[in-house]
Write a structure and sequence with these properties.
Layout (H helix, E strand, L loop, with lengths): L2 E6 L14 E2 L2 E2 H9 L7 E7 L5 H9 L3 E5 L4 H11 L4 E6 L7 H14 L3 E3 L13 E4 H10 L3 H6 L2 H5 L5 E3 L16 H14 L7 H10 L14 H4 L2 H12 L23 E5 L2 E4 L4 E5 L2 H4 L8 H13 L9 H12 L5 E5 L2 H16 L4 E4 L6 H4 L30 E3 L5 H11 L3 E5 L10 H11 L3 E6 L12 H4 L5 E4 L10 E5 L1 H4 L16 H16 L1 H22 L4 E4 L4 E6 L4 H14 L2 E3 L2 E3 L6 H22 L22
Parallel strand pairs: 1-4, 1-6, 4-5, 7-9, 12-22, 14-15, 14-16, 16-17, 17-18
Antiparallel strand pairs: 2-3, 6-8, 7-8, 10-11, 11-12, 13-19, 18-19, 20-21, 21-23
Helix pairs in contact: 3-5, 13-21, 14-21, 22-24, 23-24
């Protein structure tokens, strides 16, 4: 029989890219692995099996230069890669080694081969169950068994991880070896940067010798545990338990503060350790993750940006035409003029427009202009208005000032202390509180959301308008979230109250970056007395997307569609809660509907909903941001899936342990440090 060690290795590792070629004391890790493995006396040949991805070219060239064979095969179907490589080299028996295990011990390999022959089995390993340190994994399997597995199993997991079907199907003769002492908690493999640090520590300790035994490594760990401390919290075979999105999210948190660019999209806000985190494509109200799994998005639809659904064909076509014609030039794009005129036409009280690309930018621009126009620094706010210094300065005097304004727990670190007492929050529908601020703080600007979670009471909006007019205060309505959801334009049109300025974002471009600040001429002209300018406010994609989105909205009356759907969802949520005897608090605009369980376990129940709905093919939490692609059929399917989960929650309210139902930690409720 011909025994071939096939080392699977590639450059495109999700958690630690290019790891097999990372240098340890000047030598690529794959070279160290092959050198150690070459000391085996029972192997007839060593072959590296990589994928067809062009990124593997440096690996292939290096392996060939070392004198080893290297074959290419499928990126994802590693089982097929093994079978094709084995056939090319006429192997009878394959010793499976992974490229992330440079501590492979040739003596242990030889012992496994000899026992495989002695016991005359199809499959032999030291991992079933594991008792050796992670990184000493050895599997010996016949080519015939691998070929049978390829024929009989069509599960992607089996094909990605090569041997699960052989180990678990019961159709093969299997045996194995176990160490006298269970050392399976020790970690000598390389999946993450912390792993690489540990392996580097080991090679550095023994340098220049590379042919040390696994027993010598064990002794080193016992006398110098600090060398091994960096990675010991990582779970064995964690990679096989995580999908590609989860792996990438873990990697992201090492190189991006907070993991990503938007708090609301953090995995921890939905389902810690289990949320797919990243998408490969999106269309209509469906999203595909990095593993190709398809989900219906009954959650926050791009944080409320895509009221027309993902990838709207008309909007995307307009953008593609713009890209083809050139997105940026020395000259200005004409679309910014057309968009400004369109927005003024929709809001006759407004005379002028400035454009930006994000809601935070729009809010900062509006404040700059309004302060310049009023000649006063102090601002009264109600609601959420972005991340910039002017807004977060509210928490300089009291860290809890913004707790009732969407995001509690925001620390104002990094905000200049001299901005203290320039921004003062007031509560929605509390006119007396606002009036008190105006009478005591020389307020020059009032900035507020028209509506978020509750309707105006006692003519609240008109009272605010009258107060601003009487005191010569600039009134700004932040419509970045509320715009185009119940009206064609600002929600203030519904209530018949006109501000001095308003901002629009999110839905305006249906997923493309565009925001607008509109206002009266006497206020907006103050922009010329200060400095407000940015290179990428002049790009062409955003205005183009906005113009086409507005055209589609106006033609289809999208705001009526999403409002109707949202009202139906709110109605069904109330009925479902009543059916199961659960108390929920409902909130939000109809098309931004949400609910909270009235229970001490509310956050755990929210986590359970996300967990169970994900398993059923839905991105879901306790908020549903509606788009025109949410058909009655999709909504009904959503509630069919949600019904038994509400039943589980009822059982928990009656005494069942909610934590026993969760597969991971409870989701976060606000801003938390991640690492």
């Amino acid at each position: 029989m011909k025994f071939i060690a096939i080392v699977q290795a590639r450059m495109g590792s999700t958690r630690l890219p290019n790891k097999v070629m990372k240098s340890i004391n000047g030598v690529p890790m794959i070279e160290l692995l092959l050198a150690r493995l070459s000391q085996s006396k029972e192997l007839d040949q060593i072959v590296v099996a990589t994928s067809i991805d062009i990124k593997n070219k440096p690996l292939i060239e290096h392996v060939l230069a070392l004198g080893y064979a290297c074959e290419q095969g499928s990126e994802d179907d590693v089982l097929e890669r093994y079978v094709s490589t084995a056939n090319l080299h006429q192997a009878d028996v394959i010793v499976r080694i992974t490229g992330d295990c440079p501590m492979v011990d040739p003596n242990l390999v030889d012992e496994s081969i000899r026992l495989f022959c002695l016991e005359n089995v199809d499959y032999f390993s030291n991992i079933n169950p594991p008792s050796y340190p992670d990184g000493l994994d050895i599997e010996v399997v016949t080519l015939a068994a691998l070929e049978q597995a390829i024929r009989e199993s069509d599960k992607p997991f089996d094909h990605e991880h090569v041997t699960p079907y052989i180990r678990e199907s019961g159709r093969f003769n299997s045996s194995g070896i176990q160490n006298n002492e269970d050392l399976s908690a020790l970690r000598w493999t390389v999946d993450e940067q912390a792993d690489f640090e540990v392996i580097t520590n080991i090679f550095t300790h023994f340098a220049p010798e590379i042919h040390f035994t696994w027993q010598q490594i064990l002794e080193l760990q016992r006398i110098k545990p600090d060398l091994f401390a960096a990675n010991q919290q990582i779970i064995r075979n964690e990679g096989s338990l995580m999908d590609n999105g989860q792996k990438l999210w873990k990697r992201a948190k090492q190189v991006i503060p907070g993991g990503n660019m938007l708090l609301s999209k953090r995995s921890e806000m939905f389902l810690p350790n289990l949320w797919p985190s990243y998408y490969s494509k999106a269309k209509g109200c469906k999203v595909w993750d990095l593993n190709g799994n398809e989900f219906i998005d009954m959650s926050i639809m791009g944080i409320g940006t895509n009221t027309l659904g993902y990838g709207h064909p008309e909007v995307d076509a307009a953008v593609m035409q713009t890209v083809s014609a050139g997105n940026m030039s020395t000259l200005n794009c004409p679309e910014e003029v057309y968009l400004a005129e369109k927005l003024i036409d929709m809001h006759p009280w407004a005379d002028m427009v400035r454009l930006a690309r994000s809601g935070g930018e729009a809010n900062a621009i509006a404040i700059r202009i309004a302060r310049a126009a009023s000649g006063k620094d102090k601002v009264a706010i109600c609601g959420y208005h972005g991340w910039h210094d002017w807004y977060l300065s509210s928490n300089l005097s009291d860290d809890n000032s913004l707790d009732g304004h969407l995001l509690p727990g925001l620390e104002p670190k990094g905000v200049p202390r001299n901005l203290k007492d320039t921004v003062f929050p007031f509560n929605y529908n509390n006119f007396a509180e606002l009036e008190g601020l105006v009478n005591t703080q020389d307020i020059g600007v009032i900035k507020m959301e028209v509506v978020r979670n509750m309707e105006p009471e006692d003519n609240f909006l008109q009272k605010v308008r009258n107060l601003a007019t009487k005191k010569n205060i600039v009134l700004i309505f932040d419509e970045c979230t509320s715009g185009f959801r119940e009206t064609f334009g600002g929600l203030h049109k519904k209530y018949g109250v006109e501000p001095d300025m308003a901002m629009f974002g999110k839905a305006l471009g249906n997923g493309y970056g565009i925001t607008a600040i509109i206002g009266r001429c006497e206020v907006m002209e103050a922009a010329q007395s200060t400095f407000i300018s940015s290179t990428f406010w002049t790009e062409r994609i955003g205005p183009t997307a906005a113009l086409k989105s507005l055209e589609v909205m106006e033609r289809t009356k999208s705001w009526e569609i999403i409002t109707h759907t949202g009202l139906e969802i709110s109605k069904q949520l109330k009925l479902l809660a009543h059916q199961h005897g659960l108390d929920i608090n409902q909130w939000g605009l109809p098309s931004l509907t949400g609910y909270t369980f009235q229970s001490d376990n509310a956050l755990a129940y929210k986590t359970l909903v996300t967990q169970e709905m994900l398993a059923k093919g839905y991105l879901a939490s306790n908020s549903v941001y509606v788009c025109t692609e949410h058909t009655p059929e999709i909504v009904n399917g959503y509630f069919d899936a949600l019904n038994p989960i509400f039943g589980l929650i009822k059982e928990c309210e009656e005494g069942r342990d909610i934590l026993s139902l969760l597969k991971g930690p409870i989701c976060h409720s606000g801003f938390n440090r991640l690492n």
